[in-house]
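ASSEMBLY PREDICTION REQUEST
Request ID: AP-0331
Submitted by: J.K., bench scientist
Number of chains: two
Total residues: 555
Priority: normal
Notes: Please return the full assembly, not individual chains.
Input sequences:
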Amino acid sequence: MEATEQEPLDVESIRADFPILDREVGDGAPLVYLDNAATTQTPEQVIDVFSEYYRGYNANVHRGIHQLSQEASIAYEEAHDRLAEFIGADGREEVVFTKNTTESINLVAYAWGLNELGEGDAVVLSEMEHHSSFVTWQQIAERTGAEVRYIRVDDDGYLDMDHAAELIDEDAAMVSVVHASNVLGTVTPMRELADLAHDNDALILGDGAQSVPNRPVDVTDLDVDFYVFSGHKMAGPTGIGCLYGKQEVLEDMEPFLYGGDMIRRVTFEETTWNDLPWKYEAGTPLIAQGIGLAAAADYLDDVGMDAIQAHEERLTEYAYERLDEFDDVEIYGPPADDRGAVVAFNVDGIHAHDLASILNDHGVAIRAGDHCTQPLHQKLDIAASVRASFYFYNTMAEVDALVDSLDAARDIFG
Amino acid sequence: MSMGSDMYRQQILDHYRNPRNNGELGDATFSHEGYNPSCGDELEFDVKLEGDGETIERVAFRGDGCAISQASASMLSQKLPGMTLAEVKELDRDDVLDMLGVEVTPMRIKCAVLSEKVVQDGAKIYEGEADVDQTSTEDDD
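STATUS: Completed
Returned structure:
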């Protein structure tokens, strides 16, 4: 593949929406931002919506009779409709705003897990879960006496689906699996896992933190019971995430946080809960962030999720192939043409953190460490790796900048 | 060239490639290990005290991690013999950075100070002042 080949997106005009991409770092090196799996940059259109809220109609929601509160309430509620549409949910009842993916998983773990799990139950995870899921279910299992099982990841980075079918048996109560790995880039067969779970009367939670931003996702097609993702990885603000839950599941579940706005009626004797999704949004919610996230969904749909996925696949394939030319580079995960928009690798003889420090001098921002997946790194038998992750505003030339700057590290450590 | 690459001066790379006092002491008075979760660096130090029970006679260490953490351990292992445990406990971040002799970028300070923290915690445990299984750079002093 050539870097000059025609691209599915007009990246030049897209980049104009992201002023941060023009900045320099260090001694004047142009920024090459390749840490998108950690957080993505925010377009002007989202920043504008955010500041319009604070400039024009900042007020608490669901409380005031006054006009500002009405305007804020409507915008905040409609943001739920927008996100429901974005992921193919039936409506706002199925979309709970949270702080991030981690809080979404914790909400399910506390509200459902603590109440429903016990001795003899199993929670089935994969070996490549992010700590947000791994640690949470491990702790809930310890408290409830449930067992945690881990679906094997094979040498090519794929889930061993025969092993999955073994582990998801009649004892399985919850299957919680990442949809796209933040390290290996593996995209898991979520629908197949959902069918396995449902055949055994288990629920399934899909971690969409690395898939919702990068490819079209339809939770109804996936038939998942829960699906979780973060706003700051999809061109939205920090501090906002989503929990999708099937309406009947969310209706049956106990609340997570108690307080204002999540109640219908409070007396000295008892309290009844508000309608969905507000039952799960206690206290003053993330109003500006929620409205901003809806603006991010608008922006992504304007660009087009199919085009975003196609562009990122080209970037990823090109990065993989260029890195794979070097004998001293080891890449982790599935082949170039079958992965999400991340490439984790190591350069022989150079620790990931040393590599990231040197690349930073060349303006290249990548992640180095265990990427919140220590068990997976233990399995790969490496202490750390560097990870380049792409978004639709990245260019082939930026991939070249990454690959070419590795030579600077080789010069120092060679 | 700006700060990040400035860290990798010849002296740092030399200690990284040829760590001094690398290995184990069969007659160690105490040993202690530590971990830097942000980087994945690991270090274990063996310390042999002189007959007075407070002056360091020899040290050895083994570890795995980035150049900054391993060079820091190697350089510290040369600095420690002759120091008393009281003096070791007085060492602070600036002493370590002075010893390294390079500008360490803020995100890499934890790599630089791991060796110092491991030896200090080892000394405190030996003297009964602390009780930690494993030192972590995430724990505050």
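REVIEWER COMMENTS: Residues 112 and 254 of chain A are 7 Å apart (CA to CA).
SIGN-OFF: pending second reviewer
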